[in-house]
Amino acid sequence: MRTKPLKLLILFCFLIVAAMFSSCEKKTDEDKLKISYGTSFGMCVGYCNSQLFISKAKIELKKYENKPNAAPKVCTAEMAETDWSKLADSIDLNVFNQLKESYGCPDCADGGAEWIQIEYGDKKHKVTFEYGKEPNEVKPYISTLRAQFATFKDCK
């Protein structure tokens, strides 16, 4: 009857390993996450307002001209899965959702404005700030958003 203790030991080890793997959850479900980033300059001629939309594996840039009824320029690209995961993992939704909606005086005296909007499931929060003067809480990922934005410099 030695097989019963051996079976119990194997079952116990299996349960421990299964429990370890089930506790390794990701911070967010990346399929539910959508990130938008943009810049605007009110006293400007040309394409002065830009919006970058990022979701899993897809990036889209829309550039708007400061003219009534002007159609936006639209450029799209793919984002490497590792880059998307790195960006998604760098965002602490609890911290972001507690930020104020506006910091400083965005686009005052034509200094420009930047904004970040994060949607997760049915929750959406947008934070706007003076161009180049982001709140400390977004520093872990603002450089990634700006770098992705810069990849579209040839969007015509």
Automatic annotation (TrEMBL):
Keyword Signal among record annotations: yes
How far does the signal peptide extend, from start to end residue?
A: 1-23
Entry keywords, A to Z: Signal
Q: What is this protein called?
A: Lipoprotein
